[in-house]
């Protein structure tokens, strides 16, 4: 019994944690500027590719973990400055433009690195015994690392000057501007930070997945479910949405195929929209 | 004197609108004649290309009806196209060919309508609009293609389904089949023409005004007494059924169904067709399919891996430079020219009054 329950719970936690850090940037950007970034999945891909390239050149996993967020944030910043900033208040245009960016990034990665999966080695092989049940050590590290990132995000969101400005802007953009907050600057920083966090997520999940150019799409749709189900109220909404979507999918996957489980989660998310249009956690 | 001055621009404007309309009508007639006579002077290969363009135009029209006329962007319209294609293929492979393909066509259309109705009810009546609608439909197409891959006993998985009997109908013991290229060409053309006029006629009168009101200001439309969610739901369902019709026809004519018909790639290409042609113009959907398909062939003949990059640039370029499609290129050019002119004039004036 314990041999079944513990891995299940830990698998659930792994997926929830991954979803949480992937969806974080997406949710904040959506809450902040009503912008849906369809290129968000590509930041995950960029993170994973950073890891693959770092290891291919003989460097360590940990170096990749340090530089991936910088690369992700830099690309995010460039994207916001060059295209997104001209499209505030035009949500559908943003969707089309970010989709175009996503196509271009994927195909450039394919052209440069080929369509073969890249090799990534697990930095913490082996397993750890938990109450007599073995579990891969890397997944435990992933859970811990995600919780640390979540903690940092909560700290920045709740207890810093920037976090206060961010929350003000999410609540009421016009009022924030009237109070002298430079909302455009806040948006640019939030967009870049979202890209950076997604790139870290890419490094973290890469050893568990096949690293190839179109891997971002794999998480993008589920990250959107998280945002829809959780609401755009900030970090609490993301956490609640991830717990529901990730938990449900893991549990359903034990009784049906993964595809069917994902389809059921989609149906669930759609029904949730009807019942709770604001999401689990309301913005306040 | 003042009266004459006021009247003249108005008359000029009326004349302008009238000529524009006449010009458009003239071009449509010209295109129609060209398309009708194409088999006589065009190549055999061109006929196949145009046949597919016609079917894809029906698909693009289905999205234009939704996105152009109500403002709802479906990012997963290929779900319905693929449903039609797979339903026709599966049923005509497994049932008696005398009625299998026709039954498949109907089942595909009804199934697509039912799914659109179900999802549309939860989404549209739940107040979901704009970006969230787009991403939920995006998820829908991802799931649909997942199912098509994994349910391989029925859908053929990665290889798809081939060897589908040609679309046909048995009337009073006689069998009519869409087998020869010429018949297929004219059938596709007829269906496109009927769809185009049907959608145009539907959006022309009072109903089109209601949809326009919903798109412009839904709250106001609702306060005028229109059940806006219900109208949107109806259009979404109709649009899905039209997409399924296009999908079923395409599978029936190509005699195969594959994953390309249901996935995200086609879902986004149809958006590009509509956007390039100018959303809401209906005829633009056809123009968009023609331009993008020809462009795709040209680019793919250089290197097929370049196409996604070109498509991506298209997505960005259309939003920034041609938000109302290629048919507005003359207007946009004129605006730029008059803008330049204005700058020059103001400079000259500036010099005159220092």
Structural overview:
The complex is a heterodimer of chains A (284) and B (354). A two-stranded antiparallel ribbon of chain A has the order 1-2. Chain A contains 11 helices and 2 strands, in the order ααααββααααααα. Chain A has helices at residues 2-33, 40-56, 61-82, 91-113, 137-159, 161-171, 173-178, 183-205, 216-230, 235-255, 258-275, and strands at residues 127-130, 133-136. Chain A has one domain. With 284 residues, chain A is mostly helical. Chain A starts with a helix and ends in a 9-residue tail after the last helix. Chain B has 354 residues and is mainly α. Chain B has a domain at 43-262. Helix content of chain B is 79%, strand content 3%. Chain B contains 14 helices and 4 strands. In chain B, the strands form 2 sheets. Chain B has a two-stranded antiparallel ribbon. In chain B, strand 2 (168-171) and strand 3 form a beta hairpin. Chain B is globular and about 80 Å long. The two termini of chain B are 33 Å apart. Mean pLDDT of chain B is 85; it is low at 1-7. Chain A binds chain B through residues 30, 34, 36, 38, 83, 86-87, 91-97, 99-104, 106-108, 110-111, 217, 221, 224-225, 228, 257, 259, 262-263, 266, 269-271, 273-275, 277, and chain B through 71, 73, 75, 119, 121-123, 125-128, 130-132, 134-136, 138-140, 142-143, 146-147, 149-151, 264, 268, 271, 275, 305-306, 308-309, 311-316, 318-320, 323.
